[in-house]
Amino acid sequence: MSDEKLLAGKKVLIVDDEPDVLETIEDLLPMCEVTTATRFEEARELMETRHFDLAILDIMGVSGYDLLELANQRNMTAVMLTAHAVSAENVVRSFESGAASYIPKEKMADITIFLTDILEAREQGKHPWWRWYDRLSGFCDRTFGSRWKEDHKDFIDKIPFY
């Protein structure tokens, strides 16, 4: 199924303290009903009062992990997006904290691919990270160095490859 079809009409909350990031992602998701927030408090209120199919949460600047915890409590699918917290440790923390994916802002142009992977996984009863490694292992190798997989073997062993 095409990215546009699967994402059509989905209610998406994007939380980032950088207005240009919000605008860029909103432009990449014209098929979705997008709501944006630039502050933690604003995002928390939206999450507590409205339903969203997906939440895209910046890690830095808006207390993304606190928002992830709230998203999990509300059974909201959340994705962590970051430029400044690009590290193997944050990949692992995102996975272990229940995020449906971890996306470096450098890969933001591919947001529809990542979100479609998550929605397809949900439809097929698969883990939301089922394609994450295929999509980002090369980026992680270049960014974190060749030892990152060895240093985080427990995480690598938990990634579903089906």
What does this molecule look like?
The chain is of the alpha/beta class and 162 residues long. The protein has a single domain, classed as 3-Layer(aba) Sandwich (Rossmann fold), CATH 3.40.50. It is 50% helix and 15% strand. It has nine helices and five strands; from the N terminus they run H-E-H-E-H-E-H-E-H-E-H-H-H-H. It has helices at 3-7, 19-28, 40-49, 64-73, 88-96, 111-124, 132-144, 148-151, 153-158; strands at residues 11-15, 33-37, 54-58, 77-82, 101-104. Strand 4 (77-82), helix 5 (88-96) and strand 5 form a beta-alpha-beta unit. Helix 3 runs parallel beside helix 4 (64-73). The longest helix is centred in the last third of the chain and has 14 residues, at 111-124. The chain is globular and about 40 Å long. 35% of the residues are buried. The mean pLDDT is 92.
Summarize it.
Helix content is 50%, strand content 15%. The protein is of the alpha/beta class and 162 residues long. It has a single domain, classed as 3-Layer(aba) Sandwich (Rossmann fold).
* Order of H and E elements: HEHEHEHEHEHHHH
Q: In angstroms, what is the radius of gyration?
A: 15 Å
Q: What global shape is seen? A: globular
Number of strands: 5
Structural class: alpha/beta
CATH architecture: 3-Layer(aba) Sandwich
Which key features would you list for this structure?
162 residues, alpha/beta, Rossmann fold, 50% helix
What's the structural blueprint in terms of helices and strands?
Layout: H1 3-7, E1 11-15, H2 19-28, E2 33-37, H3 40-49, E3 54-58, H4 64-73, E4 77-82, H5 88-96, E5 101-104, H6 111-124, H7 132-144, H8 148-151, H9 153-158
Parallel strand pairs: 1-2, 1-3, 3-4, 4-5
Helix pairs in contact: 3-4
